[in-house]
Here is the input.
Amino acid sequence: MPIVLILVTSIFALAVAYISQYGFGFEPCVLCYYQRIPYFAVIVLSLLSLSIRMADHRNIQICIGLIFFISAFLAFYHFGVEQFWWSGSESCSQIQTLPKNFIEFQEKLLTKMPKRCDEVEWTLFGLSMSVYNIIASSVLGLFSIFSGRLATPHS
Here is the structure.
């Protein structure tokens, strides 16, 4: 059943993200966190679809496919920030205002700076995790939509 394969693949993708973060110490930026949201949405939709024992998963699969395409777009945006094609949001940069007084200066020293979105921490074959997410999300999106469109409804 394609919906189970989509569910397992989404869980695996999130597991890789969390293992790289907590197991290997790779600090995600804000765009990395945003790229996890579509996978959570797919998991919820898949589990909901399976739990109510829908006979026809076609519309859910097409919806999931669209979520994966949004995920691919988000990953492409992140890749563009990494390549300096465009700048990320304010939460992606370390630009901060100067402190107005000594107490504010001390507070800024104690707060952890967010990871910049244009800093690539890990690559495999010269490709960052955002590129692998573009590929995975695009493939999963195509798989979801085509398997949803090609499935025959159950009576």
User: Anything to note?
Assistant: The chain has one domain: 2-150. The beta strands are 123-124, 127-128.
